[in-house]
Amino acid sequence: MDNLANKEFNPLKLENQLCFTIYAASRLMTRQYQPYLDQLGITYPQYLVFLVLWEKDGIGVNEIGCKLYLNTNTLTPLLKRMEQLSFIKRTKCCQDERKVRIYLSEKGKNLKEEAKNIPLEMAKSLNCSAGKAMCLKNELEILIHQMLK
Questions:
Q1: How many domains is the chain built from?
Q2: What is the pLDDT of residues 53-69, one digit of tens each?
Q3: FRET pair for 37, CA 20 to 30 Å: which of 11, 28, 50, 102?
Q4: Which of 83, 74, 84 is nearest to 103 (CA)?
Q5: pLDDT value of residue 23
Q6: Where do the HTH marR-type domain residues begin and end (predicted)?
Q7: What is the mean pLDDT of the segment spanning 43-58?
Q8: What is the arrangement of strands in the sheet containing 59-60, beginning at the earlier edge strand?
Q9: Mean pLDDT for the chain overall
């Protein structure tokens, strides 16, 4: 029987909240990553920025923000910190000085080699099949796109 049709279903119980399940999973996932990221000397949000830049270097702050669903106010301090750590270089565009492009430094590029095994190690630690993980990821992407409409 569908929980919503069940008269005993309590919509205000914590265990019935999709938002809490996603929140808890996100926090626990980040915690699983931490030992690997500690070895690299980076945080989880920095790791996400690296993933974007390793895929396409020299992109604008807005493009990074779109890929990570972060606004500029959240992203700018993160990028400034990464620049202070010599992982990236922020360069103003010649055509429009209000726009900033982000480039990996040598240190940032070299980190890719050190990070390459993180996805495999994470998959092992989660004890989740690749098929199940991909199915869950696809369902969550559908949810994200529905919320962005």
A1: 2
A2: 999 999 999 999 999 99
A3: 102
A4: 83
A5: 98
A6: 15-149
A7: 98
A8: 59-60, 100-104, 88-92
A9: 93
Are 35 and 62 contained in the same domain? yes
Q: Is the pTM of this model over 0.85?
A: yes
**Is residue 84 located within the same domain as residue 139?**
no
Sign, Cα dihedral of 105, 109, 114, 117: positive
| Same domain assignment for residues 101 and 45 | yes
Q: 102 and 44 in one domain?
A: yes
User: Do 54 and 112 fall into the same domain?
Assistant: yes
Longest alpha-carbon distance in the chain: 64
Is residue 1, in this structure, part of any structural domain at all?
no
Contacts of 121 (CB under 8 A, 6+ apart): 36
SS3 89: strand
Q: CA-CA distance, 30 to 125, in Å (whole number)? A: 13
Q: Are residues 124 and 59 in the same domain?
A: no
Residues shown for the chain: 149
- Flag whether 10 is in a domain: no
4-34: per-residue pLDDT in tens? 566 788 999 999 999 999 999 999 999 999 9
- For residue 149, give both structure tokens: 């409409």
